[in-house]
Amino acid sequence: MDETGTRARTRRAILDAAVSTLARNPSASLADVAAAAGVGRTTVHRYFRERSDLLSAIGAHLMELVATTTERARLDDGPAIEALDRLCQEYFELGDGFLFAFENPQLADWESWDSETEADQALTRLIERGHADGTIDPTLSTAWVGSLLWAMLYAAWQHTREQGVPKHTALRLCLHSLRKALTP
To answer: Does residue 111 register a pLDDT over 70?
Structure first.
């Protein structure tokens, strides 16, 4: 087995475990993260010397996941509103990470949050295409539609977390509400 591949998988397992653990309990220790990842605490420290290193890596990891899920949503295929549904479904699966990011102000210094990414540009192009093809109300600005997408996702994530609603139900409500809000 390639050591680089093993290291990459271990790092990703630690990051995924950190996201889900810290989303549930922001004050969780690195030992808690290690246990959730199925590795020893020294292994976590080998990858992330300090908690701040882990938090920075989570930010970068989330941005990578956004890029991957944006590609997987195939934004250029079919009517724009259907592509937006696919994007919303993909982003919905990143809920733990985004809830953690949105609810922890110390993460506001993640450099990549402030820069426009290819995923941001792809969303803008999708919304503009929806305006042009008539599937997204052209009276709603691109910025408004983007903000509405994130607000609906946040509401769905919170609905699952706080109300105990099954994820598939929260996602269905999110998609239904988003379509109702955006359809001309």
So the answer is: no
Domains plus CATH for the chain? 1-49 (1.10.10), 55-182 (1.10.357.10)
Question: Which sign, positive or negative, has the C-alpha torsion 119, 124, 130, 136?
Answer: positive
Q: Are residues 131 and 145 in contact, defined by beta-carbon separation less than 8 angstroms?
A: no
Question: What pLDDT was estimated at residue 1?
Answer: 44
Which of 161, 145, 27 shows the shortest CA–CA distance to 99? 161
d(CA 89, CA 87): 5
Q: Within the chain, what is the greatest distance between any pair of CA atoms?
A: 55
Work out the burial of residue 136: count CB atoms within 10 Å of its CB; fewer than 13 is exposed, 13-18 middle, 19 or more buried. Answer: buried
Q: What is the pTM of this model?
A: 0.83
Place of tokens 């052209």: 138
Reply yes or no on whether the pLDDT at 171 is more than 80.
yes
Q: Which residue has the higher pLDDT, 24 or 162?
A: 162
Long-range CB contacts for residues 165-172, cutoff 8 Å, separation at least 24: 167/92, 167/95, 170/92, 171/88, 171/89, 171/92
Mean pLDDT of 145-168: 94
Instruction: Give the integer Cα–Cα distance in Å for 72 and 86.
Output: 9
